[in-house]
Every structure is written in structure tokens, then in C-alpha cells.
Amino acid sequence: LTGIQEKLDHIVYLNIKTIWITPFYKSPLKDLGYGAEDFYDIDPMFGSMSDFESLLAAIHDRGLKVIMDLIPNHTSDKHRWFQLSRNRTGKYTDYYIWQNCSQTAGSVTPPNNWVSIFGDSGWQFDAVRQQCYFHQFGKEEPDLNFHNLAVQQEIHDIIKFWLGKGIDGFSFSAVKFLLEATHLRDEPQVNKSQNPETITAYSQLYHDYTTTQVGMHDIIRSFRQTMNQFSSEPGRYRFMGSDGEEKEDIEATMMYYGTTFTQEADFPFNLNLINMKNLSGNSVFEAVNLWMKNMPAGKWPNWAVGNPSAARISSRVGKEYVNVMNMLLLTLPGTPVTYYGEEIGMENIASENVSEVHINSNPVI
């Protein structure tokens, strides 16, 4: 956090207006900090709460704004809520998605065929509770049960805490995973002739029951309503972004903008320019046109050519494209989103130290 503060003059020089910082919550850092152990504390690797408050003041002193990442879908298995839930303590008993699962000869048979994004079953047996919990990401990141209104209230309280500190907005990540179907049916196989017992990869199933469920957008809109409580003063509007990227389904992505009458995200982050298979004039046109022709009337576009999950331009498509991609980013209508280092053509380096990669994952808008 102090490192970001040291670079603020550079950010001002670039005429950037908002800094977007990836997760720095207290975390075991199993998944680059995306599984929080404590949403109200800062991991010592990045500094202290006083470091954050100093950074926030310095950002605002320069007329800049800052937004934070918030991943409400899951926590770390080290989180206090999970420790209480696995022991069936009071209201925390149903904070996560628990199901009975059969165990024979040391082998666990999960409740259904749902798989984790990282591969293999999305169900993990917990010896303390003697049940399986569901995790859409790593087994160290149990999914919260958003059918439980108390869980939803916990997230609203976290939003209020950080907005109360003075941050200018949130980017909500992994929101399409917030709800799962309660009927627990097997998800359909992509290849119907495949032996069901051999399914281990996320791409081998259609995720009809674990993503974008009915009611998911209502939860995101409720986050927006809480943020609006902090947006009433002139000049204190709180920005809300979401990673509502639905890959092949542009109409589903556009739903994160909300409707004419119901406000949701200011914009879902647009990764079309990052996801292009081959860089060409035609592919750029198609990526831009896809967003602009589908965007709801009166809404605002955005563009990104880099993020923490993608190689930088120079490493992804070549050094010779750095200037032209940055020019494209800055001349398209809407908000440009860049990843730190792209402005100087920084290249990716291989690192075996995951923590080191995470320290550097602070994109700026």
C-alpha cells in the first residue's frame, strides 16, 4: 500500500483519475488473496490499516479516487464464519453450502457432479462437520450460502465499512457464482457420450445450476442500493463495477448494467479486447462493435487491454503493438481501464513466488 502511495505522482502525470486495487484483505493467499480470511482487516504483507488510511488520504488529496475489489461469493476456510459453521454454531450453521455425502473405504461420493473451476469435484469432505461443503473455486475457498439472508447482510455490512472509510467504489468479482440451484441436480454434460465418472474439467459441463441463477441480479442490485446510501452528497458518487463477463453470451453480460428502471453496475468490465483470439483490424472491429451494438441505451461503455489475469500487451501480442493498443484504449468512447505497467510497455516475467505476483497486481484506471 505504501508502494502505491509512492507512485501517485506518476499516476497523476498519466492523467489517470481512479486507482483500482486488487484484494488486500487478510488472507492465506492461496488464490492471490481472492479468498478472504477477514474482510475487515488488511494482510500484513500489504501493510496496516493506518497505511491504507494514509494512502486513501493521499489519493483524495490529489483529486483521485480509489475503488476496491470485493469477492462476495466465498471466503477462506480460515475465516471465522467457516470455523463456526463447521462446528454448527448458531446462525453460522448455514452460512455455507453443506450437504451429506457418502464415505466408503476412505473414498467420498459427492452429492452430484458439480465441478470446481480449477477442476475435480466442487465438493470437499470436512472431517469436523462430517459433511461436504461446496466450493466453486479452490477447496480452501468454501462458497457462502446466499440463500441465507444473514449472509447477504454480512456482505452489506462489509460494503458499509469500507465506504465509511471513504473509498469511492467497488468492483464486485465472481458475482455470477453467487447462487446455486437448491435442487442439486447433476449439470448437463457437454459430451453426452462421455462416461460421467471421467468428468473432472470445468469445460466438460454446462453450468446451468451453478451460475447466473434466478435472484442473482437481485442480490447485486441490493449491493447497489446500499452503495447509493453513501452517494447522496454532491461529488461523492460511489462507483460500482462488476465482472459480469459471460464469455459467449453478450446479452447476459449486458444485464449487469441493470434496466431503465433498476440500477445495477455502472458497467460490467469489458474484456472483449483481452479475449480476442487473433489481433487484427477485423477482430478489433468485431470486439468493439459487439459491445456498442448490444449496450443498453443511455449506458456507458468501458474498455480494457490488460488485467491481473492476462499477460501484458507486450508479452501477449508483441512489443510492436503496445502503442497502438494504448491509443485504441484511449480513443474509444467510454472509460479506459489499464493494468499498471502497460503504459510503459512492461513485459511479464515468470515467477515461482505467488506472493510476489500478488504484490504487483494493482491495476489502475
From TrEMBL:
Pfam families cross-referenced by the UniProt entry: Alpha-amylase
Presence of the UniProt keyword Glycoprotein in the record: yes
Keywords: Glycoprotein
Coiled coil residues, start to end: none
Domain of life according to the entry: Eukaryota
An individual GO BP term: amino acid transport
Domain Glycosyl hydrolase family 13 catalytic: 1-365
SUPFAM superfamilies, sorted: (Trans)glycosidases (SSF51445)
Name assigned to this protein: SLC31 protein
Native source species: Atlantisia rogersi (Inaccessible Island rail)
